[in-house]
Structures are given as structure tokens and as C-alpha cells.
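Complex record, two chains
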Amino acid sequence: MAPLLQIVDLHKRFAELEVLSGISLDVARGEKVSIIGPSGSGKTTLLRCINYLEKPTAGHVYIDGKLIGEKQVNGNYVHLSDRELAKERQEIGFVFQRFNLFPHLTALGNVTIAPQKVLGLPREEAEARGREMLTKVGLAHKINEYPERLSGGQQQRVAIARVLAMQPKLMLFDEATSALDPELIGEVLRVMRQLAEEGRTMVIVTHEIQFAGEVSDRVIFMDGGKIVEQGPPREVLQKPQQPRTREFLKHIQER
Amino acid sequence: MYFLHVLEAKGWYFLTTLLGGWPETAGVAAASLVFALVVGLFIALLRLSRWRLLRFPAIAYVEFFRGTPALVQLFVIYFGLPDTGFQPSPLQAAIVGLGLNGAAYLSEIYRAGIESIHRGQMEASLSLGMTPASAMRYIILPQAIRTMLPPITNFAIVLLKDTAIIFAVGVVEIMALARNLVTETLQSAVIYLIAGAIYLCMTIPMARIAARLERAKRAWQ
């Protein structure tokens, strides 16, 4: 079966700085892939290129075999219009490090706005779905709270519910727990673990090595804009082959 | 004192005469405010566009209308437009002139408000499948409006006071009536002070609204 996500020779350059130097990666349907690596290794940029928050300098991204962010016209690749791109992004959920909840909307408002304005669901239907998703992340009692009245962990769970309400084919997590106080990390990881068990396709950029080892089918170690090593967590995390991987893991454990 | 004597003898007559121009003053202020609110938003969105071809005319517009006197702009519209075959009425010229001028200032207020919203808000909206236009409408502007309301109210106060120059294109408002009265009675001090008092009676409540909005904004953030 064709991979759900296919990344082909992706490059991203910011002025003189090459952040991604030729990343190719296939993710199967239902597969959980964790990406680890030092800061500046290009993990976040890779994730942002998948849903075209960053335009890749070269290379292509496919979801379900469909080209993302561009189309071929007479053999040339052309960037999509805002409307076409928006349509493709509906299928790719993105969870941000800093949550990015909408502060002028309640938890339920945050979760229902896109289903209403993007999918065109009637209000009642969107709210029913929103309630279901907020219940799923354990926040049924916070439905009418504004984000500023929620803890970081609760905000991130609302952000996850907001993504779930769009029923994406693929979920991307960009260091979803890095901005949280240590005691709030667990509740977010629990929700992510639950999603993993449901068989969703997830690409997780994280510094939580232990969590990555437990939930992922595959761990990827990135450094300097390249994939240095990848494989089952047991291999990459326990018996890394590459010296850079070993060094990084040693660093993390000493923390 | 002579001043008080005049005020006592003629004050009521002066006041009621000047108030005859109140509808014109308030009407032009309100109409040009609406005009400026709409055109200003349009200019601000052009100014924030990704495309230089759209940004450039917006920048030129703002520079032109902020860099030349409002009176000159009014004269160009009222005395200049007839050369192209269209003769605006004094009211039309005043509303369009002050409106176009105000749009330049308002577009900068809008722009600052929109830019004050964190980039993550737009990114979150886009990642949920919204187009940039619907993200602006449902996510960015509703937040920005709370930041923008106090400066917009202050702008409305300035606009109201600026209507005092539109007598120059023939609108018979408070200042025009005051000048007529002065020519007639030569009581400059009393008449112009009464005119000033009328403006104050309109601007003070507006300033209080602005202050209240400022407090409300802080409570929300």
C-alpha cells in the first residue's frame, strides 16, 4: 500500500542557511514516527514544510499520493492558490509548541470554529463534535472557559481537540510539551498516547525520549538538516549505530 | 465686565444660532468617519498584502494624505474636481475629503492592531484549513478590534474637531455660522468661545468612552 505521507528530497534554505538538506521519508498509514535531534537540526522546519507553513526550497510532499502545496501544470510545479492550499491543509492536523489557541473564543469555540467555517458544518453538529472531542481529551468540564483561564496542559489538550475536530488523516506534533511546566507534561502525553493507540498516523517532534520510545513504531534522529539514523525505537534509542546519535542521547540522559 | 455683559445679553441668541449648524457638524463627522473606517480597512489590508504591487499604492496613499494639509485636499476636491466635469456639493466634498484623509490615519491604526496579533494565530488558522481571508475575518480582526477601539475613538474626536475647516468649502456648520455672527455683531470673543464650548460638549463624552474602552481592553488581556 502506498505510504500516507511521502516526502521526497526536501530542501529548505533561509537566505544563506540550509536548514533541510535533502530529506526523504515515507510514513505508512497508522504509523507513529518520532523525530528527535538537537535544536537547529531542522525537525520543526521539516514538520512545517509538510503542511506548507514553510514553503520548501526544493522537493515535494505527498499525502495519499497527492502532491501537497503545489500542482503540476504542463510538467512544471506551480504553487497552489490560497484556497487550494487551505483545502489540502484540512487533512493535516498541526499541534504547536505554544498551543496558539484563539484567545477570543472559549474552549468549545476554539474547537468548533474550523468545522463551521471550513467544513461548513451547521452549528449544532459542530458543537456536538466539539463536545465529543473535548470530552475525549478530558476537558468536558472546561467547555465554556476562555484559554487564559486554562493551565498550559489544558490549553494544549484543547489544541489537540481542535485538530481532532477536523478529522485529519495525519497529525503533526511540534514539541507539543516543550512549553509546559514539568508537572503538566504527563496529561498531554497521556492524550497523545491514547491517539497513538487508536491507530492514527502521527509524526511527533519531541524531546521526550522515553515517550518516543514507548509510542513510536519508528524513531528518526536528525542533525544538520539530514536524517542521520532511523529505525525501531529499540534499535535507535538503545543501540544507536551513528556516533552523533549516541552523543545526543548521552547528552539528553545527563540532563 | 463687558464680556459678561455681552454673554448675558446675547449669549442665548448666539448659542441657539450656532447650534443651528450642529446637524452639519455632527453629520459630516459621522459620515466621514464611516467612510474612513471602510476605506481605511481596505488600505490597511493592501498595505499588509504579500504582493509589493498592492502594498506600494497603499503606502503612497498614506504618505500623500498624511503629508498634505486637509484643507488643501478639500480644495482639490471642491474646486479642482469641477475641472473634470463633476461638481460635488459642499457636503459631498467635505465628507469625501475628510473621509479620504481619515482613511490614511485609520489604516495605520488598523495595521498596528493587526500586526499586534501574534503570528501563531494566523498559522493556527491556516493549519486548520482556513484561507488567509477567513483567518483575518474570524480570528485576527476580532482580536485586533479590541486593541484598535481606543485609538479609533481618539481618531473620531480629532475628526470631529477637524470639521471646523469645512466652512472653507461652503458647508454651513457651527464655524461658518460663528463667522457670520462675528461679521454681523463683531463679538468675536464670546461667539468663538461659545462655539468652542459646543465642540467640548461633544468631545468630552467621546473621550470618556475612549478611556472606558482602554480599561475594558486591559481587563480582557
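Note: Residues 2-220 of chain B form a domain with the MetI-like fold fold (CATH 1.10.3720.10).
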